Amino acid sequence: MEDAIPSSKMHGLLVFSIILTIAVLARVQAAPVQIPDLSRCQLSSASAPRGPPLTLYFNCCLPIPKQPMVDFSFHTYTPTVRRVRRPAHTANAEYIAKINKAYQLMRALPDTDGRSFKAQADIHCSFCNGGYPQKGFQGDIPLQVHFSWLFLPWHRWYLYFHERILGSLIGDPSFALVYWNWDDQKTGGNQVPEMFTPANTAIYEEKRNKNIQPPVIVPLAASTPLNDSNSVKIDKNLNNMYQSVVTASTATLFMGGIVRAGDDLSNASVVNAPLGGGIENGVHNAIHFYVGDSTTQLSQDMGNFATASRDPIFYAHHSNVDRLWEVWRYNLPGGERFDHNDPDFLNAQFVFYDERGRMVRVLAKDALDSKKLGVYYQKGESDDLWINYNPPAFTSVSAVAEALASGVPYIGAAPLNGTINIGTKFSAIVKRPTEKKPSNSVEVLTIQGLETVRDEFVALLAFVNLPDAGPSTPTHTAEYLGTFNIIAATGRTKKLMTNVKYEIGDNLRRIGIQDEDEVVITLVATKSYPALTFQGFDIDYEDK
Ligand code: C2O
Fold first, then answer.
1. Whose CA is nearest to atom 3 of ligand 1?
2. How far is it, in rounded angstroms, from Cα 163 to Cα 310?
3. Which CATH architecture has domain 400-543?
């Protein structure tokens, strides 16, 4: 009979292998997102869960150029001239002719050319609707560049190369995109820019919402009705900008949260749920929602990620998102703000086509300074309106007693609450942290583990101190924390679990309830959903 391994040794072996497994897992998790294996493309899809069953399949597979892939370096792509992006509503006839010419030439390129309009649009579709599984992981974990810290750098790179291609097609190295200045509530930026509206031009797209032709003011929250009066819409727009850019002073609040290689957004848990930033969740998504044509399947083009960038207005929309990233970093009261500096953020890899049709591998960290890429923004003329917006307080005393009397429950942090159904509305009393606020931190409400179907547009409103809030409660006030919108997307990612965060300290101070131990939080769903659930509320301090 063979000698049995003594049990103490066996035990040691077991412990060792557990430690090894944990170490390996930790290593796998702590890695930046990589570019996928481009030969493993699959059909992207988007489906509508209600009404007649419908799934649209999109072939967004990217053409693979003959030339080998290159790595981006500032040396190879040294900017020779400045590209200055200006507000779309101020573009003159000469510029409009120029950009139309550029898109005409881009549209004329064969689909097999990475610089073609089709391939350019497919870059967005394939990295947002599951065109490529992540490399190096078992199973089908789609690469997704929304809902996280990847959102801003990925889209900055996307515009950078798109703009270079347009410029090279017309032989103008200073060619710059325009930005759709939708946050501008003063000089006319808040409408669909006229330059995009004449039919049969290269920058026109048929599948757009016919109800938001200029001079209709475009709401910056999908919960803001189109038929609000202009002055009401303007105040709501200013507050949406204020709440999602100005008071969102941490990288996580503004840019979004962590995503590492192998993270599966459709299969998240409360702890590692993805997190879109304020700029993405609110104002950015609202523009997609309002520009898409809701009479088409899945609100094409802008209303879903698979088709959004088939509309040239997409690039003007994202130029403004990109500009606001600059404003957020450098031009807000309180001094410079800081991007994420986690190595898995900095070293996240993406791939695009350059103006020679080559594939270029880039890193998130090389996009952090837009001037280094040669891209400048003409200063927005009315940023100060939302930067200095003073949301008026609707209430002045704590609503906790009133809420308690009407049976509103206490809800704490996950996982103690189980799964809570929001229905059309849900109110709870939430405890604030007992310790004093550390300096250089902000007070943040987290809606934990918000889960939604992924293929339907979602608009959820959050209020503080308003237990009676409903879908028509005004959102220009200090009680409004923000809207959470999700753009419909892939059918291969059936649901999405996410955490949603709002800075809340500024709101409490404005109302005058900053010394209370607990507050009432109310969530309101403004559209009807099959199921919208979450796991808990948490209020805590987060470092700037
Ligand atoms: Cu990639 Cu505005 O979305």
1. 305
2. 15
3. Sandwich (2.60)
